[in-house]
Amino acid sequence: MIGKLPPALLFAINQIFAIAVPACALAAGGPPGSPRETVEIRAGDLGFVVRDNSRSPRVLSGIDSLFNLRDAPKFDAYDPDGKGASAGLNFEHIISGHRDRKNAFTPRAGRYSLFALPEDEKGAVLVRKEADDPWGVSSTLEYRASPPNAVDFAFRCVCHRPEMFGARQYAILFFANYMNDVADVALHFRGVAEAGGAERWIAADAPPGPRDWNSGGTYRQRDAPALEYDKDLEFRLNSWSYEWPRYTEPVYFGRAAHGMTLILMFDRAYAADDEIRFSLFKFKLPKQPRPAWDFQYVIHKVAAKKEYGFRGRLIWKKFVSPDDCREEYRKWSAKVRTANRATPSALLPVD
After folding, report:
1. What distance in Å separates the CA atoms of residue 335 and residue 152, rounded to the nearest whole number?
2. In this model, does residue 108 exceed pLDDT 60?
3. Is 325 in a helix, a strand, or coil?
4. CA 264 → CA 150, 244, 316, distances in Å?
5. What are the structural domain ranges in the chain?
6. Which among 106, 81, 78 has a CA at the least distance from the CA of 92?
7. Cβ atoms 137, 128 nearer than 8 A
8. What phi, psi does 25 have (nearest 5°)?
9. Pairing state of beta strands 200-204 and 182-192?
10. How confident is the model at residue 22 (pLDDT cuts 50, 70, 90)?
11. In what side-by-side order are the strands of the sheet with 38-43?
12. Is 116 within 8 Å of 41 (Cβ atoms)?
């Protein structure tokens, strides 16, 4: 089965599991080739740049800039002015439930190599080896253009030293989107405002109030319990979550300036092994209308050598309506379900 996978996928698997893949097998389809500092991609309406972290934390890894060349050709989705803040789908933190200096910003340091996918695949993959991660987590984060206006992304990781996550046994993997100007700070999602409440559209703007609030907060799925963490945990802003509201579908949208919308959707919500949580932080407000529209991937009961991960889609286009955003998710999730049935463990595009 492995020999039939695309060369870039073989490379990613090789990096995580240290599988010996002949060099000729990797070279047969062209790239990945040598590591790159940036990969520029243009497909459909979108033009975007993916960056490694060789200049981090001054310049962050992930999507360095994102333009819809038809609907807003001069408006970068991500903050173009702040140093170290022009980044989207940026792997930002690995956080445990106990006090540890590694809880903050470890993916920003150490090698996180970037490789271009073959030209006809319109994408790139970041590769992190176990030896380069203080938590002993190897990972791949792949980006693929999906015309006319989407970027599909897929994250896979293996925790080689689960004992590092302590008695709580969970790992919060945090991903950031540092936005340019927005028309509305809130995250919009389908959810419930209270226990037993009817599902409806929620506009969540991360209000103050909770004890560990720090310019923002996190929203979890309707059935997900709150994460417990040690009393002396020093990095709490990403660990707690609002009791209500909670989301019911793993998709949210935000209203950006120039009539644009950013839609983020995921192939999972909450389960025994893992979950997705939505986060909103407002460190630049009110001076600038530039929130961070973020998300978290939480692994429960981290196990050694087990592969974890998720798929998602980011859409950057003109805003039509909340129902249009929801329909984008419905169409994509149907394709994901079909793809997962065919290749449940593969890091493959859904379209």
Report:
1. 12
2. yes
3. helix
4. 10, 20, 9
5. 2-342
6. 106
7. yes
8. -70, -35
9. antiparallel
10. very low
11. 38-43, 46-51, 62-68
12. no
Q: Do 79 and 86 meet the contact criterion of CB atoms below 8 Å apart?
A: yes
pLDDT digits (tens, 9 = 90+) for 330-344: 999 999 887 766 654
> Looking at this protein, which amino acid is placed at residue 196?
G
**Placement of tokens 């923002």 in the chain:** 216
How far apart, in Å, do the first and last CA atoms of the chain sit?
21
Q: pLDDT band for position 112 (50/70/90)?
A: very high
Question: Using an 8 Å Cβ cutoff, are 274 and 299 in contact?
Answer: yes
Residue 59's CB is within 10 A of a number of other CB atoms, namely: 18
Half-sphere exposure of residue 38, counting CA atoms within 13 Å on the CB side? 12
The pTM of the full predicted model, rounded to 2 decimals, is 0.89
Residue located via tokens 């062209």:
30
**CB contact at 8 A, 311 and 334:** no
Q: What is the dihedral of CA 178, 237, 140, 126, to 10 degrees?
A: 30
Confirm if 256 and 282 have CB atoms less than 8 A apart: no
Distances (CA, A) of 58 to 108, 113, 295, 314: 10, 16, 22, 24
Q: Which residue has the tokens 């200049």?
A: 55
Query: Residue 124: what pLDDT?
Result: 97
2-342 is classed CATH 2.70.98: yes
Residue 199 to residue 192: CA distance in whole angstroms = 5
List pLDDT tens digits, range 113-154. 999 999 889 999 999 999 999 999 999 999 999 999 999 999
**What is the C-alpha separation between 100 and 233, in angstroms, rounded?**
8
Report residue 283 as tokens: 């460190």
